[in-house]
Amino acid sequence: MTSLDDMNGMNVQPSIPTPAPTPVPLRHPRALVPVLVSLGMLVAVVSSLGAPLIPTIAAEDHVAVSTAQWALTVTMLVGAIATPVMGRLGDGPHRKRVILGGLAAVFVGSLLAALPVGFACLLVGRALQGVGMGLVPLAIATARDALPPEKARAAVTTLSLTTAAGIGLGYPITGLFAEYLGMYAGFWFALGTAAAAFLAALLVVPKPPHRPSTPMDVPGGLLLAGGMAALLLALAEGERWGWLSARLLALAVAAVVLLGGWIVHSLHSTHPLVRVRLVKDRGVLVANLTTMVGGVGTYLLISLVTRYVQTPESGGYGFGASIVVTGLLLVPFSAASLVTGRLVRAMGRAATPARMLPLGCLLSLGSLVCFLLARSSLWGIGAMMALAGLGVGVTFAVTPGLIVGGVPAAETGSAMSFNQVVKYIGYSTGSALSAVVLQASTAPGTTLPTDDGYRNAGLVGCAAFLATGVIAVALTRAGARPRPSLVAAGAVAEARTEPSRT
C-alpha cells in the first residue's frame, strides 16, 4: 500500500485499511457540484442569520440582550453536537437519507423561527437550524465518492470554503430583510431556500457506495454532546456569570472531564463516533490545530469589525453604520475566501502545506495589523476584510486536502465532521474573547468600550494567528524533505483506494 509518507512526507501509515470504492452512478452529473455547494452555502447563511438580530430580538421578545444571544449560541451548540453524529451516520449506506433529514430539520426550524409567537419558539427553531451545520462534511464525502479525482479535489476545496464565505453573505441578507421587511423575514427566506435545497438534493445527490453500516456509538455521542454543551455554555455565559464564578469553573471542569472521557472511550471503542487515532496522522493533526486556532482569530476579527462600525460616532470612534452597511462590509471577506480556492489550485506543485498554511496565517495577520493601524474609513475596513478573506481562504483550502489524504475513504465524513467541530470551537472562542477584552475596557456605568479596547483585542487576534503560523511551520516542516503539492497529494490519496495501486 502507498504510505502517507510518500504522500506528504509525514512519516505515518494509515491506521485503517481502505476499501475498494464502488463507482457511484450519477443521474445529473453536471448539477451535483452546484447542489453540494448550495447546501454548504445554505448552512453557512442560515447559521449566521441570528447574529445581527440580537438587539432586535431582545426588543421584540422583551428579553435581556444576554438571553437573546442564545438565538446565535444555540445554533452553534446544536451544530457542534450534530455534526460528528451526522458524519458517522453518513459514512454508512444511509448518507443521502441523513442529508435529507438534515435539510428537513433546517426547514422545520426555519418555520418555527419565522413564526412571531415568542422567544421560546424562536429558540427551538434556531436549534433545529443548527442540525444543518452537519451537512458540509457529508457534502464533502459525497464529492469524494461520486466525482473523478480532479473534480473531487476542486469540489472539496470549494466546499471547505463555504462556511467562511457564508458568514459574509448571511449578515447582509439578514440586514436587508430586517431593515425593510421586519425581523422574521430572514427566517422565511431560509424556509424557502431549505425547501429548494431539499428538492435539489432529493433529485441530484446520489446514494453512497455500498459500505457496511457501523453501529452508532451512543455512549461516545453522549460524552461528546455533554462535553461540547458544557464548553460552549461556559464560553457563552462567561461574561455574564463572571469568568471566575463557581458555576462557570464547575462547568469548565465538567467539559474537561466529559471530553477527556470521550477521547479515552473513542480510543478503546470498536466503532467510535470519530476515530481519534486518525488525528495521529501529522496532516490531520496540523489541519485540525490550524483550523481551531485560526478560527479563533477569524471570528474575533469579525466580531470586532461588526461591533466597531456600528458604534455611534459620539463614542469618539466608529461610524454609526446600519446593519445593512455592516453586512456589506463582510461581502469582500466572502468573495476573497472563495477566490482563493482557484488560486491555490492554479499554483500547482507550489501549493504545498508547508507554504500555503504559513501564507494564509500571514495574510490573516496582515488584516489584523490593518485593523490596528488603519481603521479610520469604511473603505479601508472593507479592504481589510478582503485581505482577511484571502488568508482564511488559503488556510481552509489546504486543510481538507490534508485530511482527505490522511484518512481512508470510508472515514472521510467522520474526519471532516470532527474538523468542523474544531472550527466551531475556534469560532466560539474568538467571539467570547472579543467580548471579554472589550468588556475589560468598558468603564463602570458606560456601555461603550474605549478605543484602546479594540487595540487590545486586535493584539489578541494577532497572537492567535502567530500561534497558528508557528504550529503550521513546526508540523509541516518536521522531517525536512521535499513534499508534493496538494494536487499531487490528492492524486496519491485517490490511488490508495485502488486495489491495483496498493
Would you mind describing this structure in some detail?
It is built from 20 helices and no strands. The chain has helices at residues 4-8, 29-47, 54-61, 65-68, 70-90, 95-114, 119-131, 135-146, 149-181, 185-204, 218-241, 246-268, 282-310, 323-329, 331-346, 353-373, 378-406, 412-440, 451-476, 486-495. The chain has a single domain (4-216, 273-501), classed as Growth Hormone, Chain: A (Up-down Bundle), CATH 1.20.1250. 74% of the residues lie in helices and 0% in strands.
Write the layout of secondary structure elements.
Elements: H1 4-8, H2 29-47, H3 54-61, H4 65-68, H5 70-90, H6 95-114, H7 119-131, H8 135-146, H9 149-181, H10 185-204, H11 218-241, H12 246-268, H13 282-310, H14 323-329, H15 331-346, H16 353-373, H17 378-406, H18 412-440, H19 451-476, H20 486-495
Helix pairs in contact: 2-8, 2-9, 2-10, 5-7, 5-8, 5-11, 5-18, 6-7, 6-8, 6-10, 8-9, 8-18, 9-14, 9-15, 9-17, 11-12, 11-18, 13-16, 13-17, 13-18, 13-19, 15-17, 16-17, 16-19, 17-20, 18-19
Short description:
By secondary structure, the protein is an all-alpha fold. The chain has one domain (4-216, 273-501): Growth Hormone, Chain: A, CATH 1.20.1250.20.
**Range of strand content:** under 5%
- In terms of per-residue confidence, which ranges show pLDDT below 50 for 5 or more consecutive residues? 1-21, 479-502
CATH architecture: Up-down Bundle
- Label the overall shape: globular
Number of domains: 1
Under CATH, the homologous superfamily reads: MFS general substrate transporter like domains
- Helix percentage range: over 70%
Q: What oligomerization state is this entry in?
A: single chain
Q: Biggest sheet, open or closed, and with what strands and sense?
A: none
Return the average pLDDT rounded to an integer. Answer: 78
CATH top level class name: Mainly Alpha
* Structural class label: mainly alpha
Listing every helix as H and every strand as E from the N terminus to the C terminus, the arrangement reads HHHHHHHHHHHHHHHHHHHH
CATH topology: Growth Hormone, Chain: A
End-to-end span in angstroms? 4 Å
Number of helices: 20
Organism: Streptomyces endophyticus
Keywords: Antibiotic resistance, Cell membrane, Membrane, Transmembrane, Transmembrane helix, Transport
Membrane topology: Multi-pass membrane protein
Pfam family, one: MFS_1
